[in-house]
Amino acid sequence: MDDNRKAILNDSNSIISKLQLLSVFFGDDIIYKIFLRTQVIHQLFDDNAELDINKLELFHLQYTQTLIDLLRKIKKNNEKSILILLDEIQLNKELIGKIMDSVNTFQQFKIDQQRQALKINTSLRKLYQVLSDDSAEYPFSKNINAFSARYAQDFYYEISPDLINELIAYAAGDVYSNAYAVIQRKLMGLLCKNDFRSSFFCGLRAGDQIIEVYQLNDTDRYFLYFPLRELFLFCDISKFNTSGAPTELSKKETFIRELTDKNNQLNSSVNVIKSSLPTEIKTLLTDNYKKLNDINFLQNISNVDVQANMLKSMLNTDMM
To answer: What pTM was estimated for this model as a whole?
Structure first.
């Protein structure tokens, strides 16, 4: 084998290898078929020494290399688009990380409801003793208002200020009071009868005004605690809507879920964009493959030239 023929066949193998890598990257059937057809053409010249080896070189120069350049350009443009998506994904991840530290989870809210109810029940039992003994002792459990301060923004029902005022209205003759608290007389009696057993029912808020609502265990009676005035009154829950429970996820958690969903969508887009081919390119490649597959290569080299020129025109456009 003369040196020129050997060099052209070696170059041909190298070009075909590049096309093979691109066919694997894009994972598109038509590119793989073109790769296989190009191998057949190479083997045709390799097996037939009498053929003009320069035609193989011309084929690769005009067609295969142009196709490789076009696919590389598409790959590069796809990678630019992916980088934009990856930047957005990273920013979302960083934001999620920052928010996670301060998230109030619904699960923790449910756990802390039980702790808060225990504090309220203990405080009311103590308040009963203080009122009975006419004592000046402070009746409330430590940090009794921390629960609402933590969870009201995310988990309490929003109601109007007017409704707040309606719910906390009372007649002076209907309550017991001291320097620390005000409690409805009949409520205190019912609490004693029920052994100060109650459970957190829901929270209400109107701006900075907060109400905690409790249900007396094993009854259909409810009472409220208004921290701003240390006030305990019966509560008519029919005055506000509890049919749609507050979100089981805090606003921060909801935002995190939205960002996570967005990142999942972006990651899916990355996988699609990575190996995507413009429709017009796929159409052209399909047409090219048909011509490469149907023609007698040696007799119709000019037809390949036509297809190569179309590829070059695609390569030189700004559409990608």
So the answer is: 0.60
